[in-house]
Amino acid sequence: xxxxxxxxxxxxxxxxxSIDTTSNAKSGHPGAPMGLAPASHVLFSRIMKxxxxxxxxxxxxxxxxxxxxxxxxQYVMCHLLGYQMSIDDLKxxxxxxxxxxxxxxTHDPTLNIETGAGPLGQGIAAAVGLAIGKAHSxxxxxxxxxxxxxxxxxxxxxxxxxxxxxxxxxxxLAGHLKLGNLIAIWDNNKIxxxxxxxxxxxxxxxxxxEAYGWQILRVENGDSDLEAxxxxxxxxIACTDKxxxxxxxxxxxxxxxxxxxxxxxxxxxxxxxxxxxxKLFGFNPEQSFHVPAxxxxxxxxxxxxxxxxxxxxxAMYAKYAQTHADLYNQLERILNRHLPDGWEKHLPxxxxxxxxxxxxxLSEIVLDALCPVVPELVGxxxxxxxxxLTRWQGAADFQHPSTNIGSYAGxxxxxxxxxxxxxxxxxxLAVYGPIIPYGGTFLNFVSYxxxxxxxxxxxxxxxxxxxxxxxxxxxxxxxxHQPIETFSHFRAMPNIYCWRPADGNETSAAYLGxxxxxxxxxxxxxxxxxxxxxxxxxxxxxxxxxxxxxxxKNAKVTLVGTGSEVSLCLDALKTLKSEYNLEARVVSLPCWxxxxxxxxxxxxxVIPDGIPAMSVEVYSTLGWTRxxxxxxxxxxxxESGTAKQLYEKYEFTPEGVAKRAHKTYEAYKDTPFxxxxxxxxx
Amino acid sequence: xxxxxxxxxxxxxxxxxSIDTTSNAKSGHPGAPMGLAPASHVLFSRIMKxxxxxxxxxxxxxxxxxxxxxxxxQYVMCHLLGYQMSIDDLKxxxxxxxxxxxxxxTHDPTLNIETGAGPLGQGIAAAVGLAIGKAHSxxxxxxxxxxxxxxxxxxxxxxxxxxxxxxxxxxxLAGHLKLGNLIAIWDNNKIxxxxxxxxxxxxxxxxxxEAYGWQILRVENGDSDLEAxxxxxxxxIACTDKxxxxxxxxxxxxxxxxxxxxxxxxxxxxxxxxxxxxKLFGFNPEQSFHVPAxxxxxxxxxxxxxxxxxxxxxAMYAKYAQTHADLYNQLERILNRHLPDGWEKHLPxxxxxxxxxxxxxLSEIVLDALCPVVPELVGxxxxxxxxxLTRWQGAADFQHPSTNIGSYAGxxxxxxxxxxxxxxxxxxLAVYGPIIPYGGTFLNFVSYxxxxxxxxxxxxxxxxxxxxxxxxxxxxxxxxHQPIETFSHFRAMPNIYCWRPADGNETSAAYLGxxxxxxxxxxxxxxxxxxxxxxxxxxxxxxxxxxxxxxxKNAKVTLVGTGSEVSLCLDALKTLKSEYNLEARVVSLPCWxxxxxxxxxxxxxVIPDGIPAMSVEVYSTLGWTRxxxxxxxxxxxxESGTAKQLYEKYEFTPEGVAKRAHKTYEAYKDTPFxxxxxxxxx
Lengths: 682, 682
Known about the structure:
Shape of chain A: elongated
Number of domains of chain A: 3
CATH topology of the largest domain in chain A: Rossmann fold
CATH class of the largest domain in chain A: Alpha Beta
Oligomer: homodimer
Largest sheet of chain A: 6 strands, parallel
């Protein structure tokens, strides 16, 4: 179908609305929306499957705006397409409480925002995750005549996304995995905040993506050659065994007097320039937020066509429910975020007499037990499988079938040595639908992926990081691999659960917590070294985040530990008695965030008034005084050596603990009232 | 010169010593050292300029082992070449207190370890920094007849380094900058911990690096074709306008019965396999750590040749001291880590009446003042120059001269949108010699570079991160850009100074601290929004890390703030008095780490016993109870809106502060003794 005046009018409406949205807010990025208006128009009017009245339709095409600063474009499109986005919402752009924040957020389910974006590179990594999600879901659920999952994933991205390492990681893996349904549209406008890309970015992007195994298409004139844009989209969709990068050459701020320069990138157009653009496009410069009626009608028609497509899909899906009831029921269960009935009975439990085992190994035992009964678990590791122990018995790899080393139905992803990419991809997997992703690396290298971990927390995504080798206890690899500060970082991050289990039951509790907190990511910090199974540790106790492991009415001090230091605290009791004639009680605090959710009276029963509390954890002590009066931890980086040598060097021994517990007692013994730190004034 | 039996004997000695080193430690990675032995032998015996007796010789060729887990190789080479590395040191591999930790560390100046490595990708990024350092230093200090700086930078790296995003970022920039003296040798052994690289990494690496603008060379047989290896090195050196990637095909664990598999990657060889290798290479399998005398002699001869080269250089340098005394004196001053006499007098100071200014702008004023008088400052930004305000007046860009937008003498680096790459490159710049690097990004995106920031702290490198847009105060960009948890992360990291200045004088103090702490990196968190100039804020006061800004004998509570919340605390005094009839004192705590260095009596004078203290900071409160009894901070991510709206929403207003200060007072008023949190039991 040829393009006509209505298409150009719609495109110019996108442009002027983007100008008005940013000008009215006195803040925001008009340039990229103006440049991407044609590509966006063609995409939404001729290519994408979606339904604004059913924004979470299972088989919708996914759209990600990786250059999230251009979000005025997405909001404007939402308005024009009939999502719940009014002109008033556009007028509240970047204001508190609006539907139109400064970068795309996921909190409004009525919009087409699949995952948050803005930190550059995150969107394209999530798009890779969405594409994996589709490939996997199709392999599992599609049956002859039932293409339950056959959507495409479209991602706009800018030069910034292409420069970020996370995109290199994710896109290299996307090429390896031959993700045919992934279509990335590079807004090649040659401008960044500093100015021309010539300042720092003159690599041959097309060639790089070819090297990754992508199909490359180019649109020489993305400003007005709508046929070429459509042709590129269609060629991209037709290519089923490679992701596609469309090199879309555009002019940033198209129509502005400053077009093609960085002055239209990050600030609203000057008033006279806005007038200039409107005149140029035949709009009344006196009017703001004007949408010609025929533009609304045009998009409405397109939406109706789409709704007809969904109607057909719904009929097919209803039939699927009958002919493939098991798969249908499983899918619906997962989409409703219910775990399989009785799944938690598969969580392993341990008795005090049981053998000492490393919590990374205990994690493997959990995965061996759960993965066969929780089919939505899709695991992986950033290359450290034999160390992270993240691959359950009988797992099959997620690989393109042509490789003969797996298939798209496989549930174990070989992420390669790409921690940030893995975390970003998991953000896409988590929101695709029928998948709960987990991924392994060393705890220290979760920090490599911190930018994406943050997005999971911000997006309310259930992503599980299996973070082994969790302290100096990893030993000989030395300080480059021994986390000291990592947990302080994530304990300070909102909406993420940081677990550091002390034994088998606590490890099971950590998985219970991670899987049942549907709106939050979780990090599981796990040891390389063996830990004993503790008395009074139970899944139920640990699920409160903190509990009394060893009670003692004569205690003069409370010792509070996590993970590998809980058994150390227990070991120190004898020394404390024999050397200092002091008795103590011991608390295990595997998850601060869950402990915070308990009421004050429970928290006070764990860490009471009247005696001082001291923490023992081989990390930075930062934050511990939220729970204790004195904190024993690491004040430097670690060193290479055996775990035993290192624990001795830094005095994480019964003697070292007892000595400090005694000092804590001495420091507070004359204090008339010792207030528990869990009491808060506000 | 043809290769002969002695070369093969030396190579096999490297291999068997690597086996013995890891076997004796019962830990470590023998495979890569065995595979890289030929490339290493050729490099050190025929190519590199170095002097084991003068390991920090200014013009030495730099060698970086980016695949740092292969460090047995570097230690073995150090031994054979006559660095201060004995067989006993090799026998202490990976033990506490040894010279031979599990990954290369920089703490021993007698070795050839330029910068720490191990976290994959860090070494190659640092190598890019070293190469920039050389190009810049040569442009500044070389004169006709005086090639003070003409070294090359060699970097071994593995598949893991190539997969990490940081290497993509750094290598793309290296191509843009046409760093001819950078030579990266890819140990292409097709093996990672998970197994074959076919599992996750089948991109065309050569093509990708061509896309970056690198020269590509290939050695088909890196196991034994010494001529080809040497030829590649020489071609790489000859190419002066592009970095070079040598695709060196090797067999991991060459000689082992398990060669070419991942079982030789991360664990010592089995005893019978070690015997097998020794027999294969004609070594006595009963002997360990055996070095044939002729191998020692061979390397000794090579070292002597090198020493002769250094002798010539020294003579030239002595002449340079006379003919170019100014440059010589500047260079020596910098190498001795002295700042220019009186430099600190250029730090701007402010009076209470002066205008309110954003600390990012105050930082720019500092840079405008300092950069002209401190020529070792080499700045830059990850694309956000107009936002970070990191480019001083009159700065010239560091660019290849052919670009006509700068020269190698320029001191402002356009890092592009590559935060991790920037941080990793700065680690190389910091150790090259005559450079103090600083780089700008938003505080939130320092987390993208956290892996490299950690290496700076671990390496004792003076690197300065200019981190603007430091809180919800950045406003409309929203929660994807507003740091909440970032400072908790870095406050928990050993050996890094985290500054959050409240005004102009404190901003000057932050730079004073960052520049004078020669063995530590510093982060400067700076506001987007304007802040008033405070009474009693002085450079001297702020240089103690914390001080009493407003004293009051009648105070019933101490308010402790940082950055933008210090003036808020002052503003709250009036409300506290009028609404609650309470008086307070106000403390500014711009740098916790410096405050920790003060003695207890000073710290108690700032945060005394007897009255409760409450912190006010728009970050996670994690860690604050180290200094205060109650902490007011952010308990969620922020939102899009103006700074004013957001401060009101989260109650960072005089009323919000006063309300909580009153609650703090109420909670503690009946406590018989209020202990200052700065008192520690141990």
